[in-house]
Write a sequence for this structure.
């Protein structure tokens, strides 16, 4: 009277895993970051102990090793993404859903730096010792160096600050760390933690607070736009303006 239902398979087919960061990939990424740093420190010690470098030669060597460090941890992220089946587009290098977050990130970054500078000044005027939060990540050059070595060093540093840093740091802190945490946590937790990690990465108490806030802004901009290009461009703008101002101070 009624047709027999089709027999159910003994085992339901297993759906292929969805390509994406896994629960512990943020910790793996931090391990790669620390590992790259340790290797860089070893290379720096070996070079400084093995060669009698002074002046511009020493500075060029250190900046070159710094570039190698950033390329190393960014390359580790790309390798891990490949292992996880994450394409470059899925990592974040795609057309933004909207460009509006770029302007917010840049304006917010400068507002943060200005507010931090105003706070430090206010503390100084109130008689508070602010020596431990003054200064920043300065360009390691001697103002008295000869013109040719100085220009070469500044050109190398420009590549590090304006090209390598925006790409490498955005790949790691937004493409891996924030995106991996955002897939596990809810709300603003991933934005806050990845921002704090970005601030701590610069290993300088004088920029820890403002850079952490900027890291949170960039994480939000990445999430709001869906594209790493937005934060790479924002990072490039902030670094480039800071670099130009610093160079003017050095050569003036």
């Amino acid at each position: 009277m009624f047709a027999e239902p089709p027999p159910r398979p003994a085992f339901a087919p297993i759906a292929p895993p969805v390509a994406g960061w896994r629960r512990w990939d943020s910790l793996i990424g931090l391990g790669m970051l620390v590992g790259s740093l340790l290797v860089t420190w070893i290379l720096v010690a070996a070079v400084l102990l093995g060669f009698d470098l002074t002046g511009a030669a020493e500075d060029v060597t250190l900046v070159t090793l710094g570039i190698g460090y950033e390329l190393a941890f960014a390359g580790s992220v790309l390798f891990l993404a490949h292992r996880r089946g994450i394409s470059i587009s899925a990592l974040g290098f795609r057309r933004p859903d909207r460009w509006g977050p770029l302007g917010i990130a840049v304006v917010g970054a400068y507002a943060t730096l200005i507010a931090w500078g105003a706070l430090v000044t206010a503390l100084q005027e109130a008689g508070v010792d602010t020596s431990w939060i003054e200064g920043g990540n300065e360009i390691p050059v001697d103002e008295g160096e000869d013109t040719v070595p100085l220009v070469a060093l500044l050109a190398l540093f420009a590549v590090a600050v304006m090209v390598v840093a925006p790409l490498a740091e955005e790949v790691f802190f937004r493409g891996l760390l924030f995106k991996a945490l955002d897939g596990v946590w809810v709300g603003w937790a991933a934005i806050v933690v990845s921002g704090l990690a970005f601030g701590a990465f610069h290993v300088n108490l004088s920029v820890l607070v403002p850079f952490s806030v900027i890291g949170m802004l960039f994480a939000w901009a990445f999430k709001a736009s869906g594209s790493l290009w937005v934060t790479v461009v924002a990072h490039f703008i902030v670094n480039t303006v800071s670099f130009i101002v610093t160079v003017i101070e050095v050569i003036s």
In short: The chain has one domain: 26-251. The first helix runs from residue 25 to 50. The radius of gyration is 23 Å. Residues 26-251 form one domain.
